[in-house]
Structure formats: structure tokens, C-alpha cells
Amino acid sequence: MSGKMKPIPEAELKGYYEDAEKHLLKPWLTRPLPHRDPLIIGGKGARFYDAAGKEYLDFLSQLFNVSLGIGNRKVVEAVKEQVGKVNYTKNTFLNIPKILLAKRLAEITGGDLTRTFFSNSGTEANEAAFKIVRIYTGRFKVISLWNAYHGSTYASMSAGGVTSNRTPFEPLVPGFFHIPPPNCYRCAFGMKYPDCGMRCAKFLEDTIKFHGPETVAAFIADPVVVAAGVLVPPKEYWPMIREICDKYDILLILDEVIAGCGRTGKMFAHEHWNIYPDILILAKGLSNACVPLGATIMNEKIADFFQERKTFMHGFTYSGHALSCAAGLAAINAYIEDKIPENAAKVGEYLLDKLRGIQDRHKSIGDVRGLGLIESVEFVKDKTTKEPLAAKDPETPLEERPMVMLSDGCLEEGLLVMPTMAGSMIRISPPLIITEEDVDKAMEIFERQIARVEKKFL
Ligand SMILES: Cc1ncc(COP(=O)(O)O)c(C=O)c1O
Predict the structure, then answer these.
(1) Does domain 10-68+340-457 have CATH number 1.10.3720.10?
(2) Are strands 365-371 and 374-379 parallel, antiparallel or unpaired?
(3) Spans of all domains in the chain
(4) Nearest residue CA, atom 3 of ligand 1?
(5) pTM over 0.90
(6) Alpha carbon of 293 to ligand 1 centroid (Å)
(7) Going by C-beta distance under 8 Å and a sequence separation of 6 or more, which residues neighbour residue 103?
(8) Is 160 in the pocket of ligand 1 (CB under 6 A)?
(9) What confidence score (pLDDT) does residue 428 get?
(10) Fewest Cβ atoms closer than 10 Å to its Cβ: which of 3, 119, 162, 306?
(11) Looking at residue 310, what is its pLDDT?
């Protein structure tokens, strides 16, 4: 994308909106006219522009994925160069970007994660992982966390734990089971850290035993549970989970679709806890969203198993697309060369501090949490009872729900943030190139909108 573009005349713009209304089935929650989702015609870095000429500050990296900022030169140039060479090869043929990216991922992911299966999205990368763990272990059950999100196809949705995404499509895929996420603000076991002894991690062991370890193939989770409102587990959680998986010979899949590629202040989130998954899932920021890309990266034991069998009966027409892999390679190199995770760690601390300051000044903020540049603010009616600041009636129109009002109000003032699907939380996830000055600007708008929502709902 380029920078600011010439606005589109209102009559032409009206035509686009009417055509969109007639011909598009939009994803997730569709809001009919007169609500206007911005029609974007340009952007650069942390800013984007709509067709009416309005500027927005992107505190969501579009959808947690444009992590190097809109139009990152290195990624765009790599894709342009590749278009001039080979832009597609049959999925079983080789192309150079596919080989180079797989090799680069093996070099930088650590442990013995050495072999990658490429796809087009986080969902597809998880789907591949589910097939891999079933074939490799000969078992079929997968355990995951309530309120987590792993994608929107049948198996990834079944692994996901967001009730509103699941119920319209039930019955789901058999073999997927859930345990409560590590949520210290709303502990499912009614306990308090550290006296809890990490009951939530130990519950994985109980669940494996209840099911019979010989039936469980894998545990999957995102290291920082983003859909549940950016739950950052206590330091013991991931080492304990790793240990439990090892004890019962169960594979650990870490879904770093959001948490990977620098977002948490390290290149990969699992580096915070010195553990390695058996399968690492990357997507979103992996290609800076320039061209869709997903990666299922497996350890040597699993890789050898498939090498010996000489088959993995799975694939997509666009597995290992030359343009996606060229984008991925350029993006990965940019994260490292430009010290992007380091900026995420530094500015992330600054943003977290700012949010804690806002929390102190506002009675509707129950909790603030985050790691690097993935952060969340949880809103309550009362800090003592922790009653969520949510619409009581499930039929309440979207516009009248506090979190939608808050994010719509921010957007109106030119700031993009995102409510969670469940609960009363706003997620904040700017591009990792963001500056402290832009954080200041964004937080001014955010705080003003919090005051407006408090006035209406408290
Ligand atoms: C943790 C996690 N896993 C998987 C996915 C699915 O990725 P995609 O939308 O690229 O299919 C998402 C999407 O938001 C995600 O947040």
C-alpha cells in the first residue's frame, strides 16, 4: 500500500458501499448500512487512510498481522522481485523461496524444529498439525483451552473454545476436549496465584488421566491466550505443561499465530519460558500479511516419521506458494535485522505502563495485562465484584454494547483497537515498529472514549 491517497468523491463512494451491501457476505458480524466499515485506500507504517481521506492510527496491526507496519519496503520488494521470476509452482514441485524459508525457519526457531509444512493461514497450519499428530501418535484426542481461538474450519474451530463461534455450527468434530485457560484474574478454580500451585496446569494432567493417556495425541494452546483477552500465564505454567506432555508422551502444539514473529518481545513466544513445542504454528506476521502464509513446523522425530513413511496425505494447491514464501523470508529477515522484537519489548513496557495509569484513573478497568505488544484491558462494572461491563441482554444491538461502543468510538476518532468475542475486553496490538509518541496519541483517544462509555454505563 502507498501512503495517503486522494479521497474518492462521495457519490462514487456511496456506490461502493451500496455494491458491498448487495454483493458481499462479510466475515463475522455483519453490520448493515448506515454503519460504514472504513473503505481503505492507502496506508504506511502504523497509519492507514480511508476513501473519505480520514487518517487512522493502527493499534491492531490490521488483524494482529501487519506487524512490520503497512507496506514494509523489504517485504514488498521481495514479492515484486519474485513476481518477475516464478510466482507459482505446483505444490509438489520445488521453488527457491519455499526451500530458503523452510531452511531459515529451521535455523531460527530453536530446539530441533527443523521441517516445515506450508499453507495459507493459521487455520490451515493448525489443521495440518491435527492431521500430523493423529497419524504420528496413532491417537485421536486433542486437548485445548476454553476461550482460545485456533481458526474457523471444523477441526480448528473444534479445538477453539469460544462458545459463540462454536454453537451455531454444532455438532463439531469428535475428539476435541477443553480445559480452563490460565486466567489469574478470573481463576476457574477460585484460587489465587501462587497459592494455587498452578492448579490450571495440573488440570491438564487430570484430564489426560481421565481420558486415558493412550487416547490423547496432543495439547494445543497459544502461549499468550489472545482470544481470551491476552492471558499471560505465570512463569511456571509452560514449563509445567511441557513436563506433563513429556510424562505422558503427548505432543505439545504451540499456536504462535499471533504470539510469534516478535509480537511478545522475543522472536518466538516460547523463548520466554525456555521450552520448545513439538510443533510450532506460525502465520499472520510471518509474511507481514503481504501475501497469506501459514507454517506448521515440526521437530525431528515427527519429521523423520514422515520421511520414513514417504507420505503425508495432505496439501493445498497453494502449499509453499512462491510469493508467500518470498514474503515470509523477507519478513523473517526484517524482524531480525531491524531488531523488531526488541522494539516490541521496549514500547510494549511503555504501553503497559500507560494502560496501568489509565486503569488507576478509571473505575471500569478491572485488569490490564500483556506481553510485548499484545495487550488487553478488561472492563468491569465494579472492581470488587468483577462483574463484567457487558450488555445484560444477549439481544442488545451491537452498537449499544459497551465494548463495541468503545471500539467504535475509538475508530470514529481515528484509532483501531478490537473487542474480544467473549467477555468485556479490548485488545491492543500495534505494529511492532510503533513509537512511544504514537502510543501517547493512541492512549489519549482511548482514555477519552473510556470516559464516554463510563458516563453511559456506570
Ligand atoms: C491464535 C490463533 N490461531 C489461529 C488463528 C487462525 O488464523 P487465520 O485467521 O490466519 O486462519 C488465529 C486468528 O486470529 C489466531 O489468533
Answers:
(1) no
(2) antiparallel
(3) 10-68+340-457, 73-337
(4) 150
(5) yes
(6) 11
(7) none
(8) no
(9) 98
(10) 3
(11) 87
